[in-house]
Write a structure and sequence with these properties.
This protein has 249 residues and is α+β, with helices and mostly antiparallel strands. The chain has five helices and seven strands, in the order H-E-E-E-H-H-E-E-H-H-E-E. It has a domain of 123 residues: von Willebrand factor, type A domain (Rossmann fold, 3-Layer(aba) Sandwich), CATH 3.40.50. It is 29% helix and 14% strand. The strands form three sheets. A three-stranded mixed beta sheet has the order 3-4-5, sandwiched between helices. Strands 1-2 form a two-stranded antiparallel ribbon.
């Protein structure tokens, strides 16, 4: 039996619709499944990671591998470098004065440098002088002088030399604190030559009272401050008074 022309066309359209529906199903199924990454690829790769065209990080030179990296160095060029120097006598510990440019030499990495300028400027000083004034210093000073001078002279002479030669008004100031078991301020900061002479005379006219000394408390009192004996040369009515210390200067 022969089919008519219309049923043939209808049959062909049905078959074509079935083929198109199957093809669409296969494409949808393929898109819904996620292709697992290969063993050499990272899972959950971030966007832009692993893109082609990235430059790999340059390796360190062989002489820097395994060595700590130093901070960046900055080199500048200058025409003059100021060098401050103080020369002390090897045995006495006193400052050597009267030196000239010919007495100095400067070298950098073994290469001698030319000293173009030389001067001995004076700068103002503010200093607290801490003096041990105890029986032990008197005994050691007596044997140190060979028994020819009182032991206190070994302490008072350097004090008098410093106060009279290095403290110069109007810019220099000095405070003198004597200590044995406890610190005692002899004078507050001053540059008055008359007050400095009174300090020296006070040390000469008196004798140490105790052998025990407490250097730590004396330094703490001078640096940090605290409550101690009133300043001797100020004739204060109170026996004790407060000291601010060098931290406030």
């Amino acid at each position: 039996m022969k089919l008519s022309r219309f049923p043939r066309a209808l049959l062909a359209l049905v078959v074509l619709s079935i083929l198109i529906a199957g093809l669409s199903f296969n494409l949808a199924l393929g898109q819904s499944r996620r292709t697992p990454p290969t063993s050499n690829e990272k899972k959950n790769k971030r966007p832009g990671e692993g893109q082609q065209g990235e430059k790999p990080e340059e390796p360190l030179p062989p002489d820097l591998v395994g060595k700590p990296q130093e901070a960046e160095k900055i080199t500048v060029t200058t025409q003059r470098v100021n060098v401050d120097a103080v020369v002390y006598h090897k045995k006495s510990g006193q400052i050597v004065q009267g030196l000239k440019k010919e007495n100095f030499a400067i070298s950098v990495d073994g290469a001698p440098q030319v000293i173009t300028n030389f001067s001995t400027p004076e700068a103002p000083i503010t200093v607290a002088m801490v003096v041990e004034y105890s029986k032990w210093s008197e005994i050691f000073g007596y044997y140190g002088s060979g028994g020819f001078d009182p032991g206190t002279y070994e302490v008072i002479r350097p004090v008098a030399m410093f106060l009279s030669q290095f403290v110069k008004p109007p810019d220099d100031y000095v405070s003198v604190v004597a200590f044995d078991m406890r610190p005692t301020t002899l004078t507050d900061f001053t540059n008055d030559p008359a007050r400095i002479s009174q300090v020296i005379s006070l040390l000469l006219r008196n004798q140490p009272a105790f052998r025990e000394t407490n250097l730590f408390d004396a330094l703490k009192f001078v640096l940090v401050g605290g409550r101690g004996d009133s300043v001797v040369l100020e004739n204060a009515k109170e026996e004790k008074s407060g000291c601010a210390g060098l931290v406030s200067v």
